[in-house]
Amino acid sequence: LLTEAEQHEFEANGFCGPFALDNPALADLALETTLRELKFSPANDSIKAQHVLGDYKEDPRVLANAHHTHPAILQLGLDKAIIARLKTLMGPEIYLRRSQFWRKPAHGRGVIWHQDTHRKMGLGCIGEFSAWVALEDSTLDNGCVRLLRGSHKAGVVPPESVIDPSFRIRFFASEALQVPEPLLRYQAVPMTMRKGQFFLFHQLCFHASGPNRTAATRTGVVYRYLSDAGIESVTEKLIRVSTPAD
Ligand SMILES: O=C(O)CCC(=O)C(=O)O
What we know:
Elements: H1 4-13, E1 15-20, H2 25-37, H3 71-77, H4 80-90, E2 94-104, E3 111-114, E4 129-134, E5 145-148, H5 159-162, E6 188-190, E7 197-202, E8 207-209, E9 218-226, E10 239-242
Antiparallel strand pairs: 1-7, 2-9, 2-10, 3-8, 4-7, 4-9, 5-6, 5-8
The protein binds 2-oxoglutaric acid (AKG).
2-oxoglutaric acid binds next to strand 4, strand 8 and strand 9.
């Protein structure tokens, strides 16, 4: 469970962590499964970041929602250390909506500052909390996730109002990490993590990641959770991961 101080930290910052998984071996297992069974092979490391993220343009190499087909990936999303902390933040009823791998190739680019409002899916703010799990060490050099402290309190912010259009050419095209001018009042915090650690964040907390300046990959998997199974715009098959009786 989150301590009271950690709960306050989350409320103030929109994120908290890093924390250790209850079963850190699951991080290796999930990555091994992915590399072995989902064609996420080292041979693919040279391909662009967008090709190893989500089910992007129906590319079969990509890895959104592999928890439906791969028990090791589901098990990681049910890790007790994650769910116990989420329960403190979200209440007793929790559903897993989505999983998504973020594998940044060696020398791959970063991800621009954004909120997780899933605009293309028409979702907006749906009370979603995410757990980002490091499957490899995540460092300043290889492009760890950064978060803007307290920015979840800004509500839903239209991207065009904060990100210069010339900077938004591609979601995955970021070389630089500068915080857009309208968001400068928030402090950027890098979330460096060892493999087997995770952090939690609110969907409206702005986050980004820098380029990978190393010759190795940087891989994480994010799980997205809801406490309401009845949101009409959510069309994914939800998996109940915690009930009041647990
Ligand atoms: O892993 C990254 O570099 C970006 C992660 C992200 O944007 C997310 O989990 O929503």
